[in-house]
């Protein structure tokens, strides 16, 4: 009947799906996820096995550490704090440069990265969270996860399920920006460029094909492997291990041992308490390299409207009554 159809479509408009579960696309998404997990791992094994041929010195360390830093700044300052949370303003060229560097990390297309992350904040540690180590949806119902299964699911397992977060719902602003849309569409080429650049540097620096191979492996594959597992560890470990001074209604924790390599991203409890803050480190010992980078950008006029909570806001949040009973697991 027409009334029923109208009310049905009105209902659908009211509650758009969080996730696109497309049976035809699932195998493709799974294949991409498997390649994302396996290729850098195998490249890292090859890099270590070939040390007798390539050697391991300043070139390899420089390309690996330099590539790690640039792409992690791209992920943490660009995709996370600038695009997903709008924690500060910057020039469009700087925003786009950081988005390209973040895409070189090969953690998925820009739109998907931002949409997944915003869904994580909107549904943290519930069945609708894309990568909670505590709970996941199975056949439409939340399913509690034990420690080991939970760590696996949050670290890698969720990517292999083939579901895609609804980008129209969670990242409409990114989709509407022509430059960001272009960077999103050029994802594959940008990932390849992230492998070609260190290869060329290795070749130019040594004038040999062995140097080029070294650049590809250490500046490309090993760098990618390390960045992946650092980012994924934030999802798996920083919602399970660490202090939670703020009651955020989820299991986010300030994981200090991951703070340095993740450039501050593992300070998840601070982050879930103040998601729009450009700074995740709120105490002097909470190392926040990305926050330091944003301060540097601000000093040189490259960042403005940098958001951070006041001492009063922090004190008020600390004094909030516990919401622990609202947790889902
Ligand atoms: Zn989180
Ligand atoms: Zn966030």
What topology does this entry show?
Blueprint: H1 2-14, E1 19-20, H2 26-49, H3 51-54, H4 58-84, E2 89-90, H5 92-104, H6 110-122, E3 135-138, E4 141-144, H7 147-155, E5 164-165, H8 167-170, H9 172-176, H10 178-185, H11 187-206, H12 209-237, H13 268-273, H14 289-299, E6 303-304, H15 311-318
Antiparallel strand pairs: 1-5, 2-6, 3-4
Helix pairs in contact: 2-12, 4-5, 4-6, 4-12, 5-10, 5-11, 7-12, 11-12
Detailed description of the structure:
This protein is mostly helical and 329 residues long. It has a domain at 21-243. It contains 15 helices and six strands. A hairpin with a 2-residue loop joins strand 3 (135-138) and strand 4 (141-144). Helix 4 (58-84) packs across helix 6 and helix 4 (58-84) crosses helix 12 (209-237). The chain binds zinc ion (2 copies). One zinc ion is lined by residues 80, 84-85, 117, 121, 271, 275.
Instruction: Please give the alpha-carbon distance between the first and last residues.
Output: 41 Å
Which percent range describes the beta-strand content?
Answer: under 5%
Shape from CA axes?
A: globular
Count of helical regions: 15
How much helix is in the residues? 55-70%
* Major sheet size, sense and barrel closure: 2 strands, antiparallel
Strand order of the largest sheet: 1-5
Number of strands: 6
Q: Average pLDDT value?
A: 91
Oligomer: single chain
């Amino acid at each position: 009947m027409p009334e029923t159809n109208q009310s049905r479509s009105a209902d659908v408009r009211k509650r758009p799906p969080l996730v696109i579960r497309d049976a035809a696309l699932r195998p493709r998404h799974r294949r991409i996820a498997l390649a994302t997990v396996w290729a850098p791992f195998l490249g890292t094994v090859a890099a270590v096995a070939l040390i007798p041929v390539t050697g391991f010195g300043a070139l390899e360390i420089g390309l690996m550490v330099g590539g790690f830093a640039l792409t992690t700044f791209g992920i943490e300052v660009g995709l996370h704090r600038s695009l997903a949370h709008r924690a500060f303003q910057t020039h469009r060229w700087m925003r786009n440069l950081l988005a390209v560097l973040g895409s070189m990390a090969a953690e998925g297309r820009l739109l998907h990265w931002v949409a997944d992350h915003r869904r994580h904040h909107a549904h943290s540690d519930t069945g609708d969270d894309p990568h909670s180590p505590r709970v996941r949806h199975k056949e439409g119902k939340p399913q509690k996860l034990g420690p080991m299964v939970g760590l696996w699911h949050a670290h890698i397992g969720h990517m292999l399920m083939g579901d895609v977060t609804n980008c129209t719902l969670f990242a409409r602003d990114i989709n509407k920006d022509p430059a960001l849309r272009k960077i999103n569409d050029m994802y594959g080429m940008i990932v390849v460029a992230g492998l070609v650049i260190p290869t060329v540097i290795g070749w130019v620096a040594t004038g040999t094909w062995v140097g080029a191979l070294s650049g590809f492996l250490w500046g490309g594959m090993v760098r990618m492997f390390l960045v992946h597992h650092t980012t994924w560890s934030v999802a798996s470990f920083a919602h399970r291990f660490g202090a939670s001074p703020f009651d955020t209604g989820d299991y986010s924790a300030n994981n200090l041992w991951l703070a340095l390599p993740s450039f501050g991203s593992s300070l998840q409890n601070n982050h879930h308490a103040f998601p729009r803050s450009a700074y995740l480190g709120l105490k002097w010992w909470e190392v926040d390299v990305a926050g330091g980078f944003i301060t540097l950008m601000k000093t040189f006029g490259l960042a403005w409207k940098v958001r951070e909570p006041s001492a009063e806001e922090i004190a008020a949040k600390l004094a909030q009554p516990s919401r622990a009973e609202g947790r889902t697991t």
